[in-house]
Design goal:
Layout (H helix, E strand, L loop, with lengths): L7 H16 L6 H10 L8 H23 L9 H5 L44 E2 L3 E13 L1 E2 L14 E12 L1 H11 L7 E2 L6 E7 L4 E7 L7 H19 L6 E5 L22 H4 L3 E5 L5 E2 L3 E8 L5 E8 L5 E7 L7 E8 L3 E10 L6 E11 L1
Parallel strand pairs: 3-16, 7-8, 10-16
Antiparallel strand pairs: 1-6, 2-4, 2-5, 6-7, 9-11, 11-14, 12-13, 12-15, 15-16
């Protein structure tokens, strides 16, 4: 304390303070205090677990983004839920951004890309009725063979065609005739080694008839691919076999696989429309022996040979050779008509033993062999 209460200096100070106090006008300072408090905030310390959660969220977002980019157009960002599992997304404070009781929408499924389809392939099966069954009926079955189906003996060099031709054989069947004929054509080997079929691997399902078409449906068509000329000939092999078994050449053949049309047969033939019968002169062998058959056992010395030919001036040449002794008989016969398919008959008197029978045509230009068919038989 000051021991001198009447000190002039003290008196002067009291007067000055009193004057300053009189000049001050009191005001409400609360708004200004609140404004300053919000403007200057004390820094908040970041908690380590909050930083960890933030980094994890960034990493997850980056992973989802990368997954979306590398999967191209087949995936969307929402598919990340299906990979990483679903759960509530939390904020930095740890509170769920979506209340637990709020239903979540399902993740958007990725758009699927449908497989490319051949627009020419139809899945609409034709409706028809099965054939009427038969008992012990002979039906024709056609095979492929070179125009020179056999080897000539002591004759000019053969001028073989490069294209295949159709050769007809006969089989006795019971059941539905066209169905049985196609089964033979697709599952068996011809008795004559000069003939063949390219239908290996085909699995027949049904043969049904409509008023204007015959549908041959396969469980499986042949898988092989070949040149266009041979493929067309193989398709005609089926057409001729089915129409021959039905004795009806007017209705075309619709080929299907499990009811579908448009599949390329042998990689070449369009099956979107029914296949009609080609001209016989374009596809059939111009000369063929139909009886006796290959490997037949013939009793007696008189042998009757029957066949079909489309021969120039109806002239069919023949030769019979004993394969054991070399003995030969040869001459010519006339088919019923010339330049069109018609039957011919050859009568031979042969001694017991193995024989090769040949029927052939000569080229009008140089008398070389142009077409031939052969059969080997045993005479007893």
């Amino acid at each position: 304390m000051n021991d001198q209460p009447n000190d002039p200096f003290d008196e002067m100070m009291r007067r000055s303070l009193a004057e300053e106090a009189d000049r001050i006008e009191p005001t409400d300072a609360l708004p200004e205090i609140l404004t300053r408090a919000h403007t200057v905030r004390r820094p908040v310390a970041r908690r380590p677990w909050v930083l960890t959660a933030g980094l994890a969220a960034v990493g997850t977002a980056a992973a989802v983004g990368a997954f979306t980019v590398f999967n191209g157009n087949l995936n969307t960002a929402n598919e990340g839920d299906a990979v990483a599992g679903q759960g509530n997304v939390t904020s930095a404070s740890g509170a769920p951004s979506t209340p637990p009781d709020t239903p979540r929408s399902e993740p958007t499924k990725a758009p699927t890309v449908p497989p490319t389809e051949d627009k020419s392939v139809s899945t609409q099966p034709r409706r028809g009725v099965p054939e009427q069954p038969v008992t012990g009926k002979p039906v024709p079955v056609y095979w492929l063979g070179n125009a020179m189906a056999g080897k000539s003996v002591k004759k000019p060099a053969a001028q073989a065609r490069s294209s295949a031709r159709l050769y007809r054989t006969w089989s006795k069947v019971s059941g539905r005739p066209a169905y049985q004929a196609v089964k033979i054509m697709t599952t068996r080997q011809p008795e004559d080694a000069d003939y063949y079929s390219v239908w290996k691997g085909a699995e027949l399902n049904s043969v049904t008839l409509d008023s204007d078409v015959v549908t041959v449906d396969f469980k499986q068509l042949p898988q092989g691919r070949m040149d266009a000329e041979l493929a067309e000939m193989a398709a005609q092999q089926l057409v001729y076999t089915v129409q021959g078994a039905l004795n009806d050449s007017s209705r075309p053949i619709q080929i299907t696989q499990s009811g579908r049309t448009g599949i390329r047969l042998f990689g070449q033939v369009d099956t979107s429309q029914p296949l009609g019968r080609a001209q016989a002169l374009d596809v059939q062998a111009l000369v063929s022996i139909e009886s006796p058959t290959e490997g037949a056992l013939v009793s007696g010395s008189l042998v009757t040979v029957q066949g079909t030919a489309a021969a120039y001036e109806a002239t069919v040449n023949y030769l019979a050779t004993n394969l054991k002794t070399g003995q030969q008989y040869g001459s010519v016969v006339n088919a019923k008509e010339g330049q069109k398919f018609s039957p011919f008959t050859i009568e031979l008197k042969l001694e017991p033993g193995p024989w090769q029978l040949e029927a052939y045509l000569l080229s009008p230009g140089d008398d070389s062999i142009s077409d031939m068919d052969t059969k080997t038989i045993e005479v007893r």
